[in-house]
Design brief:
The complex is a heterodimer of chains A (79) and B (379). Chain A has 79 residues and is α+β, with helices and mostly antiparallel strands. In chain A, 34% of the residues lie in helices and 30% in strands. Chain B is globular. The chains are: A alpha+beta (79), B alpha/beta (379).
C-alpha cells in the first residue's frame, strides 16, 4: 500500500519558472518532480515542484545559489 | 532554381528544422497545460528554445524571452505596451512598416513621433538624435539593418545615447537575428524583437521579443495562460504575460533545431560566409552598365542584401525576367519600407533585392550576376 510522505511543494509565478526548476535540478541531480498544483495551495491549474521535505530542508540553499525562483514552499503529506 | 530571397523568408534550412517539426507534430501536447508526458514534453522543449534564444542574443534569464508569431507581433507588443499618449518616440526613415505602422498608430493615439530622415543612399545621421530629443522623449525605436540596403546601424552608439538620456531602446532585428552578432545586455538594448523565419532559419509563425530585466510590458493580448485561471486579469510575469493562448509549439520545435545549428556553427561564421557571397555578387553587378545600386556600401556591418535597379526597367519586370529566364528568386517592389524608398528615389518603380543565405553557393551568385547582365543587355 502506498504511503503518504511529508513533502515540500514549491509553486511558481509562471510555467517558465517551473521549467527552469526542473531543468536546473535535473542538471544538478537535485531530486524532485513536477506535479499539478495541489488544490490545498491554489485553485486553478499550474505546475508545482514536489520534493521530499527533508531534501528541501537540506537543498534549499542550493536552489537559492542556482538562482531558481519560486513563489512559495508549502509542506504537506502527499503520495 | 536559385533562391536569393532569404531576407523575405528562409528557404534553405538545416534539415533538422523540418525533422524536429515533424516529430513535434506527433509528440507535443500543450505546454503549461498539464503534467502528462506530451504536455511536459512541449513545456520542456519550449523552455529549451528560450534558453537557446537567450544564449544567441546575450540574455542571462531565458524567462525574459517571450515568443510571438513574428517580428511584427513583437514590435506591436513593444510599441503598444511602452509608448503612452504624450510620450515622444524617435525612429528613422529606414524602417519597415512593421515598426512604422505601430508607431503611427501610437501617434494617432496622442504620442509624438520624430522620424530621422535618410539620405539618397539610405543613411541616417544619428548625430541628429541630440537635436530630436525632447523632455517627453521615451524611446528610440530602430531597425538593426535596413531590409532594403542591408546597411546596419551602430547599435552601441545609439544605446549609449538612450542610456545617457534614460530612454528605452527598442530594436527590430528582423533582418539580423542569426546573421549578425547581437548581445542585448552588453549593448544595453531594452527590447529586442526578432522573427524566426529569416536569418534564424526557423519556420514561419515564430518570433519573439527579449525584454530587459526590470522592464514590464503590458500585454497586447490576454487570455489563456495555463495557470491562475480564476484571476480576471492575465498574469503580469514574463514570459507568459506576452504569450496569451497556445504557443506555436510545433514551429518552436523547428526554431529550436535552427538555433542549435546557428549556435554550433557560430553567427560570426555565418556572417562571414554571407558577407562574402553578397560582396561577390556586388562586385559582379557593379561592373554591369545600367545597373544602379541602392545604398552607400560604407556601413561597417551589413546584412547580406544587395538591392539594385536595371536601366529604366520596373523592378517587378526585372524580378519576373529573373524568374522566367533563370529561375532566380528575388524580391522586387518597395519591401514594406516606403520612407526608405522615397529617400532612395525608388518609390515609383521599386527596386530588386537579392538576399543571401549561408547555404547559397558561389556558382549561384555567378549565375545571378550573368542573369542581371543579360537583362541589362536586353534593355
Amino acid at each position: 500500500m502506498r504511503e503518504k510522505k511529508r513533502c515540500a511543494v514549491l509553486t511558481f509565478r509562471t510555467t517558465t519558472e517551473a521549467m527552469a526548476m526542473e531543468r536546473r535540478c535535473g542538471e544538478q541531480g537535485i531530486p524532485g518532480r513536477l506535479i499539478p498544483v495541489p488544490k490545498e495551495i491554489a485553485a486553478g491549474c499550474g505546475l508545482a515542484w514536489r520534493m521530499e521535505a527533508e531534501d528541501y530542508a537540506r537543498l534549499r540553499p542550493e536552489l537559492e545559489r542556482l538562482g531558481l525562483r519560486f513563489q512559495r514552499a508549502a509542506e504537506m503529506m502527499l503520495y | 532554381m536559385i533562391y536569393l530571397d532569404s531576407a523575405a523568408t528562409a528557404l534553405h534550412r538545416p534539415p533538422a528544422v523540418g525533422e524536429a517539426m515533424g516529430r513535434a507534430l506527433y509528440a507535443m501536447g500543450n505546454a503549461g497545460r498539464g503534467v502528462h508526458g506530451p504536455a511536459l514534453a512541449a513545456a520542456r522543449l519550449i523552455y529549451g528554445v528560450r534558453e537557446k534564444a537567450a544564449a544567441l542574443f546575450g540574455v542571462s534569464d531565458p524567462g525574459r524571452v517571450a515568443f510571438t508569431a513574428n517580428a511584427t507581433q513583437a514590435l506591436n507588443i513593444a510599441v503598444e505596451g511602452l509608448i503612452r499618449p504624450g510620450d515622444h518616440v524617435i525612429t528613422t526613415a529606414r524602417e519597415h512598416n512593421s515598426l512604422l505602422r505601430p508607431l503611427y498608430r501610437r501617434e494617432a493615439a496622442g504620442a509624438e513621433l520624430t522620424i530621422l530622415p535618410a539620405d539618397g543612399l539610405g543613411r541616417v545621421d544619428f548625430d541628429a538624435l541630440e537635436d530630436a530629443l525632447r523632455p517627453n522623449t521615451r524611446a528610440v525605436a530602430v531597425g538593426h539593418a535596413s531590409n532594403v540596403t542591408g546597411d546596419a546601424v551602430d547599435l552601441r552608439r545609439i544605446a549609449d545615447f538612450t542610456r545617457t538620456h534614460g530612454l528605452l531602446l527598442i530594436v527590430d532585428a528582423a533582418q539580423t537575428a542569426g546573421e549578425l552578432p547581437i548581445d542585448m545586455e552588453d549593448l544595453g538594448i531594452d527590447v529586442l524583437c526578432f522573427t524566426g523565419h529569416k536569418g534564424l532559419m526557423g519556420p514561419q509563425g515564430t518570433g519573439g521579443l527579449c525584454v530587459r530585466e526590470g522592464l514590464d510590458i503590458p500585454p497586447l493580448l490576454v487570455g489563456g495562460s495555463g495557470f491562475r485561471s480564476f484571476d480576471r486579469t492575465h498574469p503580469a510575469e514574463l514570459p507568459e504575460a506576452l504569450e496569451a493562448g497556445t504557443l506555436n509549439g510545433h514551429g518552436l520545435a523547428g526554431l529550436g533545431a535552427a538555433l542549435d545549428y546557428i549556435l554550433e556553427r557560430g553567427v560570426e561564421d555565418i556572417r562571414r560566409t554571407e558577407d562574402a557571397l553578397a560582396r561577390r555578387f556586388l562586385a559582379g553587378v557593379r561592373a554591369i552598365p545600367g545597373v544602379t545600386l541602392c545604398g552607400g556600401w560604407d556601413a561597417a556591418v551589413r546584412a547580406p542584401i544587395v538591392t539594385l535597379n536595371v536601366g529604366e526597367l520596373d523592378a517587378g519586370e526585372v524580378g519576373r525576367r529573373l524568374w522566367d529566364g533563370a529561375e532566380i528568386c528575388v524580391r522586387a517592389g518597395v519591401h514594406c519600407a516606403p520612407l526608405m524608398h522615397r529617400a532612395l528615389g525608388t518609390a515609383e518603380r521599386g527596386a530588386v533585392r537579392f538576399s543571401f543565405s549561408c547555404f547559397n553557393t558561389e556558382a549561384e551568385i555567378d549565375r545571378a550576376v550573368r542573369a542581371v547582365a543579360e537583362i541589362a543587355g536586353e534593355g
